[in-house]
Amino acid sequence: MQLIKEEGYEKTMHDQVLPALMKRRTSGDFERIAGQKIHYRTYAADNPRADLVLVHGFTEGIDKFNEVVYYFLQEGFNVWQIQQRGHGKSYRLVKDPSLVHLDSYHDLLEDLHFFVSEIVDRTRTDPSLPTYYFGHSMGGGVGAAYLETWPDDFQKAILSSPMLELDSGNIPVWVASVFAHLMIGLGKGTNYMPGSTPFSKTPDFENSCSNCQARFDYWFRQACEHEEYQTNGSSISTALEFLRLTKYATNAKNCKNVKADVLLVQAGKDHMVKPGGQETFIRQIGDRGRLLRIETAKHEIYMCVNSDQEKYWDEVMGFLK
Questions:
Q1: Of 57-61, 117-121, 172-176, 278-282, which range is least confident?
Q2: What angle do CA 167, 169, 171 make, to 5 degrees?
Q3: pLDDT band, very low/low/confident/very high, at 41 (cuts 50, 70, 90)
Q4: Cβ atoms of residues 301 and 309 within 8 Å
């Protein structure tokens, strides 16, 4: 597989990648709950070998994965993307475009299950093809919990920098949890979690989740131009729900339900999630799981420099094939 070069990256995306994707893209919305639209996209590959459901991470736009979708199409995978609630064009509980607010992490799981069972399974053109999962960060945490809850839906799964243990910085997780419960009790669950801020149009590459300047610059410009991609911070309620999600996904009893083969890719320089939860999950699913660590990569491995992505994609595509 030929990676897009960092030199001239934006031109390649504009002239080559986006036109190729538009030819194969269909878009739609569904409502699991009346009045709460969830946006999705599908992409059809030539001579497909499998159907792949791709789920983005926290505060990410669906278009941020255009390069990823492009690679999967080249390798013969039909791609199905869901825009998780609280993000992009999907249903939001608050008007602030920068804030991600969730009442319950169960909504993320139920949305995804509805999408798989009512959209993917009912419209895929060849039901004999295997179904795979690719989830990044929050999408990886949701994916891990999904594999435990509906273990027969996917045969293989890629969990890329999955959110399986939160990094609360210098504050112990239990302290953050007590604070969250207190604030929610005071009716302040929609407030920004301390440390979270609204979207800023001042770039900060050094503290970003990518180590590739070209890819960072390209996506940051997209976000600045489209308000729907300016999600940037977590509400107090959302942070607590993420904590509950990680506890569910790393629970030993739940992990025993996993039937899919799992490749978990860990970033060596990840400052967003901790590695402990990832390692616990892989250990507890036993022979079903394998952990790959990319030492020099930051959290968004798929947005890193080509030298990091080369091993990443070799392993991912080799695993799925």
A1: 172-176
A2: 110
A3: very high
A4: yes
How far is residue 212 from each of residues 71, 235, 298, 300, measured CA to CA in Å? 18, 29, 10, 10
Could you give the C-alpha distances from 273 to 52, 102, 165, 246, 258, in angstroms and in order? 25, 19, 6, 11, 22
Q: Quick one: pLDDT band at residue 167, thresholds 50, 70, 90?
A: confident
Cα–Cα distance between 261 and 76 in angstroms, integer? 20
Q: What is the DSSP string of 192-225?
A: BPTT-----SS--GGGSS-S-HHHHHHHHHHHHH
Angle at which helices 236-249 and 275-285 cross, to 10°: 30
Q: What are phi and psi of 22, to 5 degrees?
A: -60, -30
pTM value is: 0.96
Of 63, 58, 106, nearest to 86 (Cα)?
58
Tokens at 280, concatenated? 């616990």
Query: How would DSSP label each residue in 95-140?
Result: S-TTEE--S-HHHHHHHHHHIIIIIIHHH-S-TTS-EEEEEETHHH
List the structure tokens of 316.
Answer: 């991912």
Three-state secondary-structure class, residue 81: strand
Question: CB pairs under 8 A, 24+ apart, for 69-73?
Answer: 69/21, 69/43, 70/4, 70/17, 70/20, 70/21, 71/1, 71/3, 71/313, 72/43, 72/45, 72/134, 73/20, 73/21, 73/24, 73/43, 73/45
Take residue 259 and report the two structure tokens written for it. Answer: 């039937």
Side-chain half-sphere CA neighbours of 174 within 13 A? 0
Interior/surface letters 112-129, b for 16+ CB within 10 angstroms, e for the rest: bebbbeebbeeebeeeee
Residue 44 has phi, psi (to 5 degrees) of -100, 125
Instruction: Report the alpha-carbon distance of residue 133 to residue 129 in Å, rounded.
Output: 13
Q: Which residues contact 153 (CB under 8 A, 6 or more apart)?
A: 113, 116, 117, 131, 146
Cβ atoms within 10 A of the Cβ of 225, count?
10
Number of Cβ atoms within 10 Å of the Cβ of 87: 24
Give the pair of three-digit tokens for residue 136: 């990044």
